[in-house]
Every structure is written in C-alpha cells, then in structure tokens.
Specification:
homodimer; 341 residues; alpha/beta; 434 Repressor (Amino-terminal Domain); Rossmann fold; seven-stranded mixed sheet; 12 strands; 17% strand; DNA-binding
DNA sequence: AAAATTCTGATTTACGTACATCAGAAATCG
DNA sequence: CGATTTCTGATGTACGTAAATCAGAATTTT
C-alpha cells in the first residue's frame, strides 16, 4: 500500500494539519517541524495522489492556446486539434480557450500574451513568432509562474518551460539527404520554397538543409529561396517562373505551407519535367500528391500530438510534476507513399 | 459544472442508491426504473469521474506483460521499457508483472496465457507468436472479459482488443522504396536478412518489401531470404558468404534483429564494396552504423511508446472507456543520420 | 511573569464515486 | 387478501487529499 498523509503524520509525530501545511507550503510551521515532516516524507517515500488532490481541490486547468489565423492547411489542422481537445475538457479537467492572432503579427501576439497577466491561468501554449518583444512577454508570464509552452515554432533564448514541436534543423538536414540520395549522383539545381524567413522554424529548416547540401551533395546547387508567404497563388507563379527560367532544376524542397500552389505548378510541367520533390506537412493535398508521384517525400509534424503533449506538459508544470521527457518528444514523421497513415 | 450522480438522481426522480445500482449494473432495479435512470444519464450528459471512482474503489490495475526472452537489443529494450513502466506503477495505479517466455515457443506462450485464466487481471499484453494455439488461448482470455493487447507482433484472426505495434507491411514497402530510390537506376541484386519467417511481423515486412520491389524496381532482383535467427554470429557468416558469392549485390534489407552481425560483415568489406543498407530497430549498434555510413536508413518502432500505449489501452478497456485512436497509432519511424533522436 | 504572538493539534467538511446496510414501499404470489 | 418476494430510499462510511476553524501549547516579547 502506498503511503498517505496519515502515514507521514504518524512517522513525523505531528498532526495531519501540520503535514498539510508543509505539503501545501502554507505558513504556520516552525522550521524544525517543517524539516521533521520533510524528512518523514522522504523516509517513507510519499507521493501525493494527484487524482485525489485534484478531486479535493475541485481543480480545473484553465489553459490558453494562442494560434495564428490564416487558412493554410496546417494551421487549420492545428486549430482543429485544439478544438478536439476541448471536447475532452471535462474528462481532463481542462478549460481551454483559443485565442487567434494574425500570423507573424508581433504586436498582436504580445498584446494577447500581456492580456493574460494576472489572470488565473494554468498554462499558455503559443505558436511563437521569434521576436524579442514576444520573448519578453513570454518571460513576463513565466516570472508570474504561469507555465508557458511554445508550439510548432520555438522562441530564441526564452524562459518558456517547454517546446512542443520538432527539431527543425534536423528536419532540414533530413530533407537534404532524402533529396540528395533520391537524385543519385545527378547534377543540377535545387529550388527551395519557404513561407517566410521571419519564423524560426523556416529559417532553421533552411539552415539544416543548406548545411547538408553543401557538405555532402556539392553537385546539387541551391537557387535563391523563393518566399511564397504560404499563399498558393503566389507560390504557383513563383515556382512556374523558376522552372521555366532554369531548365536544370531537378529538385525542390518546400519547407513551408502553401503546397497547393506548388503542386499545381508541378502538375503543369509534369510529364515533361522529372522533378524530385520533398515537402512539409501532410495535408489532403500533399497526401494526394505523394500518392500520384508528384511529391516524393513529405516531412510532417503531428499537430494532434503536439497539442496533446502541450496540454500534458502544462498540467504537469502547473502541478510541479515531472514529465516523461521521452514521451513528449515530438518526432519528425517521414512519409513516402507507402507508409501513409 | 460537470453533472454528478446527484444530478442524475434528481433528474430521474430516484435515489442515489438506485442510480448507483444502474451505473454499476448491480441487481435490484426494475426495468422501467433502470430505463428512466439511463434516459436521465443521457439527457444531462453524465460522464463518470474515473479518478473519483478509482479513488473510491481503491482500484489498481494488475497487468501482465508476456515478453520473449533472448538477448537481442530490441527485446532487451522492450523489457526495459516495461520495467520503466513499473516505476510509475504507484502513480498510474498499475501493478505490472513481467512474464518471460522463450522466443517462438508456442506451447510455452500458451501455457503462460492459460495460467492467467480466472485470475484477477485487468489486462494482458503479449508479444504474439502467430499460431492458432496462441490465438485460441488469447480468445479464451477475451471471452473471460480480460483485455488483451498484442505488442510488436500481431495475431491473425484473433479477438484481441488492440494491437500496439507498427504496420509491418507498410514498413516493408517503405524499406523497398528507400532502397530503390537510394540506388537510383542501378541494376543488381538485393539480399534480405530476416530473423525467422515464423513471426508475423517478419513475414509481413518481407511481403511488403517484395511487392514494391517487383512492381516498381524490376532492375533490382531479390536473392533468397537469409534467416539469421536474430543471432549475430550466424548473421555475420550468412552475410559474408552471400557477399563473397555474389559480387552484384548492391543492397541489403535487414528486417529483423541481429544487426550486430550484419554490421560486422559490412565493415569487413566496407571500403571496397559500396552497399546501400536499410535495417530495422534503432539500437546503439544501428545508431553508430547510421552515423558512420555503414547503414543508410533505419526503420524503427518506439518500444517505449508501444508499452505506454498498451498500458493506456488495457486500463481504458478494463474501465470500458474509449481510447483516442489517433494517439494510440504506433508510427513507423524512419531514421537517417540527420534525424537521430 | 504576564501578555502577546506564533505554532501545532484536533476535528470537520468537502470533492465524486463505490458499496453496504436496513427499513419501508411496491409488486407478485398463493 | 395477506404473505412473500422484489424493488427502492435513506443513510453512512470509505478512498486520499484540501482547506477551514478553533482551542491549546509553545515561544517570544514586553
């Protein structure tokens, strides 16, 4: 049988009330007594029954998810996963609020974060735009002892408690190796298509990609990055233009969203041009493109996992509990047409 | 506020005791009354507070993990993950017992399963050897309303509640495409290295691999499968022999354990022979081989995820709770040297 | 040393559910 | 119709913890 507060009281020779004061860091306990109790806790290996504690407290976890607006498939999927999480709210004792903020809008994000100060909140999860102002706002929340988790895109040098997302440098490196190996020993040009270089995840992917390309596939030369702003129309024309201007392009790495436009551009030149393509984010469009051979590999992060992980981490952090680090690592999924879920 | 048993009682116009009888399917309730209560439960959308219920019941989940003995890295890792789970036992209210059974030994596995009949057990997880006798033993447990989960390797046509493992056909197909693409348009022979064709996961991997190879990479021809029995020494000599007998082998797919032997054989011919290699299971050996270029890709299933998922599913099944299907899907991890965890 | 202050103990209620007991009501049987 | 049998209600205890109250002890201050 697992030890309870009663066992602590007995072991330390104090009353239940005193044990409770020590456990919940309430005042009114002399130092010597406090130490006696803490020693007893260690001795008998007491572990608080979180379920019982939450029951007694009537605990709910008010959580806030700050996600960017915008209609690209990935963010849409992310919002939908957060929404799904709200359906489990009563079971998980969460109370989730979704705040939408225009994408890449630093002041708006800062305002949303600052609006949470002083509120009774058990945790904040945000898709971070990597700016010093955002970092400062996050640090303010952290200093108020509010658990903060970055989602999908991380924040440089911030004190956030956790990052629920993939290692984007590794993702870029992986994309490079896949493209490099799939292209065999061929020689030619590669085009990189990004959403915006203002977000850290895109910058990091490019960084990893360039590093491996330069070091291991010198025969493949990179063209300047095309910034599609995650907009299908713009992306389509950028890609079409690049392909027609340079007939030696043999591969494409699409590291952001807006793949619909990319796919349209590819289909337009399809039978004639043979291109090896690696893209990010599994959506209905990239899935279909993978299946029909327009895209060769898709790198993905599972938004559902990210959201659930963020919730677990926020709850655990709010309770001062440890997390299973291994379980919270978000993996980079690599999909070929053969292992689609 | 979430509705409670009191709310049901009020809504149905009955007493708490009657609600309790209905909820816990105890006798002593007339049909009409029972239906009235059930209707009220549906009306107000009552969901049982599992934490409170478990507290009241003093519930613990006695779980049994049946895992094969043997010293290959993967099974070693699996046992270690189960052991790790026992460390969280008091928090998770589990009481995990590990039963070791010789690998591929059908009668022993059946005996282990039958020994559990009639015992007070909240769930059984087993690494299945795919034999009709095993299926029958599993079905006996299921008919006793004991939750059964297959782990890593599934059972054909059985009534087990859940399979916590990867899709092995997809794994084989993925391996084939990786090898095929990495080898570009080259022509030559491929060797497949398996542990034993008696386990379903190995058979399925081979099946998927062969299918994609035949359909999409006809220039790569498969040699007869080498059965290394997951034994490093035997594997090493088999591979060395094959490589020296056929100078046109340009790729290897190792779909089972015993990769230590494979790696040793590869290192012996390394600078001279250029081979593209895809292997299964990320261990310290395959990880090092991936890093130094001896192996090109490793397909992996995360044993920790499998064990934790199995536990969640067994607990949920024991409580008649739903599981988040998406969360319990075990994914095929593809590791290149760039995305190692 | 008396007063004021700070600790500590004892006790109670609560959270939502499970489970047992016993009395009384309703239904069924003879 | 009375006697059984079957249902239902009322009530209390328990699970492990939180939180509050109040009395009394120990300590510190005056």
């Amino acid at each position: 049988m697992r030890p309870t507060v009663h066992d602590i009281a007995a072991a330390a020779g104090v009353s239940l009330a005193t044990v409770d004061r020590v456990l919940n860091q309430r005042p009114g306990v002399r130092l010597v007594t406090r130490e006696k109790v803490e020693e007893a806790i260690r001795q008998i290996g007491y572990i608080r029954d979180v379920a019982a504690a939450n029951l007694a407290k009537g605990r709910v976890y008010p959580l806030v998810f700050i996600v960017p607006t915008g209609d690209n498939s990935f963010m849409h999927g992310l919002r939908s996963e957060v929404h799904h999480a709200t359906l489990r709210a009563s079971i998980e004792r969460t109370d989730i609020r979704i705040v939408e903020v225009p994408a890449f809008d630093v002041p708006a994000l800062v305002a949303a974060l600052d609006a949470l100060q002083g509120r009774d909140i058990a945790g904040v999860a945000l898709v971070a735009t990597d700016a010093p102002e955002v970092r400062a706002a996050v640090d303010r929340l952290v200093s108020e002892r509010i658990p903060v988790v970055t989602l999908v895109s991380d924040l440089t040098d911030s004190t956030r408690h956790h990052y629920a997302g993939i290692d984007n440098i590794a993702a870029g490196r992986t994309a490079a190796r896949l493209l490099g190996r799939f292209l065999g020993g061929r020689e030619g040009y590669l085009t990189v298509l990004a959403g915006s270089m203002l977000v850290r995840d895109h910058r990091e992917r490019l960084q990893g990609f360039s590093a491996v390309m330069a070091a291991e596939f010198p025969r493949l030369r990179l063209l300047p990055v095309l910034e599609g702003r995650d907009d299908p129309e713009r992306t389509k024309s950028l890609v079409s233009k690049a392909l027609s201007e340079n007939k030696d392009i043999i591969g494409i790495y699409s590291l952001g969203a807006g793949n619909r436009g990319l796919i349209a551009a590819l289909k337009a030149v399809r039978p004639a041009r043979e291109l090896t393509v690696v893209a990010h984010e599994l959506t209905q469009h990239t899935r279909a493109a993978l299946q029909d051979g327009t895209i060769d590999a898709v790198l993905n992060q599972d938004a559902g996992h990210e959201v659930r992980s963020a919730i677990r981490v926020m709850k655990a952090t709010a309770d001062g509990q440890a997390v299973i680090a291994d379980q919270e690592r978000i993996r980079l999924d690599i999909f070929l047409k053969d292992n689609l879920p």
